[in-house]
Design goal:
The protein is an alpha+beta fold. Helices cover about 40% and strands about 20% of the residues. Helix 2 packs antiparallel against helix 3 and helix 4 packs parallel to helix 7. Bound molecules: zinc ion.
């Protein structure tokens, strides 16, 4: 018997009464666990099987883990009481599920998801939390451009009026003229995104980000996730359809 703490990323039906839980843990990475009888109304496990619940599980087994018992650490009650926050939390766990390798702990991923959910719970703007998460996930999957360097000439830049979808990075004004289909951006966008990517999580408060910059960052990050990393998520389509 072992004890493991984690976030429920996913809960999948297995037969009539059982669930397979996908859990993100700090020490074991992403693992699957069989929760026998967890679909039954009377099951004490039922409460710990909802996505983004944080719980401690007693598990046994070798190749496959079986859940003996679970106790909830945090249900993120405030997040769940608000549709926008819930939708962003569902997006956060789906994104983490997609990028976390099986049974391989990755330094920082657990802390990142903890930060996202705890910050939303405390009332930090869920959209901002999602963008910070994406910035770090893009970095982790290796498709985040160097934001303080021109994607065309590779010389340093601190301000940029353009993002190139083709080159996947910011451009000097002069370099932008020569590139097809550039997206116009706020001049300070490279610095802002660099901050999103690098600022220690514990120092993030409610960063002041204009509506225009938010929309641009959202569009660029979604583009990088989908076109460069091949990550297409149902929960993201839901957020887009809700326009939140
Ligand atoms: Zn350049």
């Amino acid at each position: 018997m072992a004890q493991v703490e984690g976030f429920i990323l996913r809960s999948t039906d297995y037969g009539e009464n059982d669930l397979i839980l996908t859990l993100l843990t700090e020490s074991w990475g992403k693992i699957g666990m069989m929760a026998r009888g967890a679909k039954k109304t009377a099951s004490p496990l039922r409460a710990c099987t909802t996505p983004f619940t944080q719980a401690v599980f007693q598990v046994y087994g070798h190749k496959m883990f079986y859940v003996q018992q679970g106790s909830i650490l945090n249900t993120y009650r405030n997040v769940r009481s608000d549709l926008t926050s819930t939708s962003y939390a569902v997006y956060a766990v789906e994104l983490m599920d997609r990028v976390s390798p099986d049974k391989e702990p990755v330094s920082g991923l657990y802390a990142l998801l903890t930060w996202v959910l705890e910050s939303m719970e405390r009332g930090l703007d869920p959209q901002l939390c999602a963008r910070i998460l994406e910035a770090r996930v893009l970095d982790f999957v290796g498709v985040m451009p160097a934001w303080l360097q021109c994607a065309a000439c590779h010389l340093p830049l601190s301000e940029s009026p353009y993002f190139s979808p083709v080159l996947g990075g910011p451009l000097h004004q002069a370099c932008g003229y020569a590139q097809p289909d550039v997206m116009e951006t706020n001049l300070n966008l490279p610095k802002l995104i660099y901050t999103f990517q690098k600022i220690p999580l514990e120092r993030i408060g409610n960063l002041a980000v204009s509506e225009t910059a938010r929309a641009q960052i959202s569009k660029i990050f979604q583009y990088l996730l989908e076109e460069f990393a091949g990550i297409h998520l149902r929960s993201r389509r839901f957020l887009d359809s809700m326009n939140i």
